[in-house]
TrEMBL record:
Cofactor(s) the protein needs: heme b
Gene3D superfamilies, A to Z: Chloroperoxidase-like
Organism this protein belongs to: Mycena albidolilacea
The keyword Signal is annotated on this UniProt entry: yes
Domain Heme haloperoxidase family profile: 43-282
GO MF annotations, alphabetized: metal ion binding; peroxidase activity
Alphabetical list of InterPro entries matching this protein: Chloroperoxidase (IPR000028), Chloroperoxidase-like_sf (IPR036851)
Protein name, as recorded: Heme haloperoxidase family profile domain-containing protein
Superkingdom per UniProt: Eukaryota
Length: 396
């Protein structure tokens, strides 16, 4: 089988990889804990679930910020505010938030000044961005071709699989090593359950990054644990999950909640490229199969990896992606190359009316990815052969 041969090759390559498995346990502290990291959830920022007409979508962070009035409670937010507030409330790095925000314009109303977008709930919102920003193999959301297109609500079965990876005990930490185990399961589920599963470079990037954001942004911080600690109850709160008296988990749409006495990341240790690059590499050491881009070619369980060498004009191969920071290099480069291309499709629709705005978004994404790449030595990738993707029914 082509797939298992590839995995073997990739796993071998990973043996001489820069990050030993103990990486997750010995990450260096960059931040110094400060009491100001406590996030206010009272008064104007009290929890209030969405009222009729308020929009919520696939992102637990944006939903929670909306429920606490850090972004508008109706769920329609200006791009710049989503970026600023993600930084203030969760410590998402400005470079990473800008890249995420730029991607979000796929779901935005490009004609409106200031680029407001809905965080979900209508066709032009984040819930309707499949294969542009929204991707398959999310930590807790279904794939686009499953659940009648509901790719924005938590699927409790997937949440439970994550939740059950740790014992129900306050001393259990849902850290990046746990999320790396979860992504392995989710990837196999997409292959086995989604006939049109497509795992291209953009999808791979978002799948990895959304898994890393769970611990990266939801963990609680303290002087004793400045690198963060994510307890099961805190995870459930951020995901709008409750436990019934018989132990059954349930999700209520839009009830994502910031817990009382929750402390975000240290200001000096934002979750941006400095943190994400080594976390990506360490996750891939546990889950190297995620690097096998491809898709189901003819129904479930027909996963066919793409030829990375043909796709990248020989710059990378399946094996070389696992060496050093090559995976992170490839992800950021592929996003930079593919993003303007897809956006031009959107531009065609709006007839160039907002050329300036769109050019600005492309420029901010390019500078965000450039700053993420600045600290890395990367092979030069200048173009991608997209025709290699045509073999997958889930592409487009
Ligand atoms: C500009 C800011 C942001 C934008 C545009 C954004 C957008 C999105 C989108 C579109 C998704 C769905 C992706 C997919 O299904 O593959 C998503 C998922 C996710 N986001 Fe955000 N997000 C932002 C900020 C945040 C913040 C502040 C957090 C903090 C916790 C966060 C945590 C997550 C997580 C954990 C997921 C995965 C959800 C799951 O499937 O379990 N995001 N985000
Ligand atoms: C966060 O950690 C601090 C210090 O251990 C603790 O007092 C607080 O209750 C924790 N917050 C949550 C939401 O668990
Ligand atoms: C796709 O699968 C169907 C049934 O599983 C089979 O009949 C068909 O020959 C397959 N097509 C290709 C191109 O392999
Ligand atoms: C991938 O494509 C290259 C040419 O672009 C070819 O030399 C190589 O054999 C292919 N690899 C696989 C595994 O098919």
């Amino acid at each position: 089988m082509r797939f298992s041969a590839l995995i073997t090759a990739v796993t071998h390559a990973s043996l001489c990889f820069a990050f030993p498995p103990s990486y997750f346990e010995r990450r260096t502290t960059l931040g110094t804990f400060s009491i100001d990291q406590m996030i206010d959830v009272n008064g104007a920022h009290a929890f209030q679930p969405p009222q009729s007409g308020d929009l919520r979508g696939p992102c637990p962070g944006l939903n929670a910020m909306s429920n606490h009035g850090y972004i508008p409670r109706n769920g329609i937010v200006l791009l710049a505010d989503a970026i600023t507030q993600s930084n203030k409330v969760f410590g998402l790095g400005i470079d990473a938030s800008t890249a995420a925000g730029a991607m979000a314009v796929f779901g935005a109303d490009l004609l409106a000044p200031g680029i407001p977008f809905s965080i979900g709930g209508r066709p032009t919102g984040l819930s309707g961005t499949h294969n542009q920003f929204e991707s398959d193999t999310s930590p807790t959301r279904g794939d686009f071709y499953q659940f009648n297109g509901n790719n924005y609500d938590v699927q409790v079965r997937y949440f439970k699989e994550l939740y059950d990876l740790q014992p129900q005990d306050p001393s259990a930490n849902y850290n990046q090593a746990v999320l790396a185990r979860h992504i392995k399961t989710r990837f196999q589920q997409s292959i086995a359950e989604n006939p049109r599963f497509f795992h291209g470079p953009v999808q791979m990037a978002f799948s990895i990054i959304t898994h890393l954001l769970v611990f990266g942004l939801m963990a609680n911080h303290s002087a004793a644990q400045p690198d963060g600690f994510l307890q099961g109850d805190v995870l459930k709160s951020f995901y709008g999950i409750a436990t019934a008296s018989d132990g059954t988990l349930s999700y209520t749409h839009g009830h994502e909640r910031i817990p009382d006495n929750w402390y975000r990341r240290p200001v000096s240790d934002e979750y941006g490229s400095v943190r994400a690059v080594p976390d990506i590499a360490a996750l891939l050491l546990v889950a190297p199969e995620i690097l096998a881009m491809g898709g189901n070619s003819n129904g479930t369980n027909t996963y066919t990896p793409l030829n990375v060498s043909s796709f990248t004009g020989g710059v990378y191969s399946a094996e070389s992606l696992l060496v050093g920071n090559n995976a992170a290099c490839f992800l950021f480069q592929a996003l930079t190359i593919l993003f303007p291309d897809v956006l031009n499709g959107v531009l065609g629709v709006v007839q160039g009316v907002v050329q300036g705005v769109v050019q600005g978004v492309i420029a901010s994404l390019s500078s965000a990815t450039a700053s993420m790449l600045a600290g890395l030595t990367c092979p030069q990738l200048t173009s991608i052969d997209k025709s290699v993707l045509e073999q997958y029914p889930g592409y487009k």
